[in-house]
Structures are given as structure tokens and as C-alpha cells.
């Protein structure tokens, strides 16, 4: 008995069994691209399921970044699509390249923190906690219940007319 030394990863090269590091790297890259394409397809399906109409919608995911292209009817639809994509697991950045047919004032965005409620957020942005339904409506259909928001979630805060 004793200790034997071998050339690491030589087996695939010498005996034709297993995979080389380059083959494993290529397979990992292919798996990553497939996962990104699947994530993009799920996001597109979610946008469709939420009945957010965007002409020629294209979502491309690369790493933790998603790029969105297409033409939305209005600013609210565009912003909701950005939120659907940005609030998806694994996405840290959204590169919004969409256009808008009917230009409107842009909404602000708020990242929910622990202890936030729609009322507290309405008080912060509008000076009146009772305006929380405005925020709830602006985030439908992504929000189903005004009490179900979570830390890290990003919400649309629409511009209010004075």
C-alpha cells in the first residue's frame, strides 16, 4: 500500500472516458443559457397571463440582468412589465428598452422594507395613508391583496395630480 500520484483530469484524455474540463465548461455554459432562456420564457408567460399588452415583447436574460424590448400602450403597462421582470427570482437589474405609445408621467418606485404597509408607503409619498388604494391599484394585477407585500419587492408609486 502507499500513496499514488496521478495527473488530475487526465483520464478523459488518456482513456476516452469522462469529460475534459473544457467539455464540462461548455456543458455548464449551455445549461446556464438554457436556464436563462427558460426564465425569460416564464417571464413572458407571466406578462401574458397578467394581460399586460406589449407589442413585440422580447425578454432576454443574461446572468442576473434582464433586457426588455417592445412597445407598451401606456407608461403604466411598461412599468408593470418592468416590475414583473425585476421582481422575478434571480433578477437584480432590468435594462428597459421598451417604448410607449401614449406618453404619461413616469411613476416612482419603492422597495418594500420590513414593517412597510401600503398605508405607510402612501403616507411617505402622498402625505396621506388613506391613499394606499392608489398604490394597490397601480400594482394590480401583481398584487392580489393590499396586505400581502414583502421586503425586497419593488412597487410602482404613480404620479398624483395635485
From TrEMBL:
The keyword Kinase does not apply. The keyword Transferase does not apply. It comes from the Bacteria. GO terms for cellular component: cytoplasm. Keywords: Cytoplasm. It is found in: Cytoplasm. It holds the Pfam family LysM. Residues 108-157 form the LysM domain. This is Potassium binding protein Kbp. It comes from Pontimicrobium aquaticum. The lineage of its organism: Bacteria, Pseudomonadati, Bacteroidota, Flavobacteriia, Flavobacteriales.
Amino acid at each position: 500500500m502507499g500513496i499514488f500520484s496521478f495527473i488530475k483530469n487526465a483520464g478523459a484524455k488518456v482513456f476516452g472516458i469522462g469529460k475534459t474540463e473544457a467539455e464540462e465548461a461548455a456543458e455548464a455554459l449551455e445549461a446556464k443559457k438554457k436556464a436563462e432562456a427558460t426564465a425569460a420564457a416564464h417571464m413572458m408567460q407571466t406578462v401574458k397571463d397578467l394581460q399586460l399588452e406589449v407589442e413585440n415583447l422580447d425578454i432576454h436574460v443574461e446572468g442576473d440582468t434582464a433586457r426588455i424590448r417592445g412597445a407598451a400602450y401606456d407608461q403604466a403597462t411598461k412599468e408593470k412589465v418592468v416590475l414583473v421582470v425585476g421582481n422575478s427570482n434571480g433578477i437584480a437589474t432590468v435594462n428597459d428598452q421598451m417604448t410607449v405609445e401614449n406618453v404619461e408621467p413616469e411613476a416612482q418606485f419603492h422597495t418594500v422594507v420590513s414593517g412597510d404597509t401600503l398605508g405607510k408607503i402612501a403616507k411617505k409619498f402622498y402625505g396621506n395613508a388613506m391613499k394606499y388604494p392608489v398604490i394597490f391599484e397601480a400594482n394590480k394585477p401583481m398584487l392580489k391583496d393590499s396586505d400581502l407585500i414583502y421586503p425586497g419587492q419593488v412597487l410602482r408609486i404613480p404620479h398624483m395630480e395635485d
